[in-house]
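INSTRUCTION: Work out how this chain folds

Fields: amino acid sequence; protein backbone structure tokens

Chain under study, with its fold:
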Amino acid sequence: MDSKNTAWHDMGVVALAAQLHNRQVSAVELAQHFLARIRQRQDLAAFLAIDEEVTLAQSRAQDKALAAGKAGPLAGVPIAHKDVFVTQDFPTSAASQMLAGYRSPFDATIVANLAAAGSVSLGKLSCDEFAMGSANESAAVPAIGLDAPQPVRNPWDTARVPGGSSGGSAAAVAAGLAPGATASDTGGSIRQPAALCGITGIKPTYGRASRFGMIAYASSLDQAGVMARSAADCALLLSCLCGPDVERDSTSLDMPAEDFTRALSGSIECLRIGVPREFFADGLAPDVRAAIEAALKEYEKLGARLVDISLPRTDLAVPVYYIISPAEASSNLARLDGVRYGHRARDYTDLLDMYKKSRSEAFGEEVKRRIMIGTYVLSEGYYDAYYLQAQRLRRMIADDLQQAFTQCDVIAGPVSPSVAWPIGAKTDPLATYLADIYTLPASLAGLPAMSLPAGFGAHGLPVGLQLIGNHFGEARLLNVAHRLQQATDFHLRRPATA
């Protein structure tokens, strides 16, 4: 590998797009470089599927578009997709045996939008099964080069988790296997792995990005987004990914696509940053607290003003989320019964026996747990007591955030209570659920939110700063993140093995 090639995987989306448009590198050269790196780092278990012929064919088409002067903003830029977005050219399984080997006859809208902008697909990325998890330890499909399913590994310390559920996306970007990736966020699945892997990730306002072609977990919470090295990279990717899709997605907003790069370098002088006191209570690790407080001080140097705010129902976000999301999961996954869709058991005695065996064989333990919780809270006699009450509290949590935005422009705090933990260390599901406490309020309220590198904590592991904006405030969030990244270099640092 020559020095020129070594630099490509250290470049972000914006820099690579510029090199491609200036004809300093071809799309085929870039694709070959990243495919070679993916093969070299199969130990990370980040990729579930690649197809070099498909990727190189897409690259050659983009080289022709570049030569003809008809290239899109992402022409030739290689990216990879989380395995919950269906694709024609690669299998889609949601990392579950239930859908192992499934081939979609169409592309998810966000995949098609990025391809229309010229991106080249490197393949599909691992995740927790059906995006249910916070550690990416529950993928039930083997990653490329491996004989059995394995947890995705954090490039900063391969004995530790990358976070979840978009752990494959985060690990791939952090290790330099892809300059950018798609991901999904239901309760923090973009922000938490981005934080634990030291990269930047953003989920837009609910409805900004189409969910058509996204394998549903919890439909009122699921949202597509992106991960990359920097806020500038995410702004370019998100501009190409978002847009109305009202004819195919009933939750899509009828709003025109927006250029989220337009205000990246704007001043943040006098910006009011709300700091929720509940985000800094007991349970936040001292090393994470120190990194977040240092980042907030950096914002003060840039002219922003910190405002003490309260989100009084923060502690209710965990039980509310873990009632609503399992309820929606139990409904969404009911179709996977071995008849209409999904794995069918080989041996059974009658229809009921086939249902039981098909679902028992193909769903993993965490998916079964959430289906059972969801079915219980939706059952007669418990619906009012649990599900309806959770929906009322969800409204109150959203109201708390709107009240906070009367005092501040953006909200800032930690993403995760701790840095990445060792694989297998958390065997109690409740322990992982509680670790979602800082990301769940924005998810329940449908607000845009992101994570950006804010320093390093125990064992030299990355810490992420969370920024939450009001509805349709993506451009403002990216501006605030970009200004911190202009003043710091945390987003430029790489794992020793990358």
Observations:
- The first strand starts at residue 47 and ends at 49.
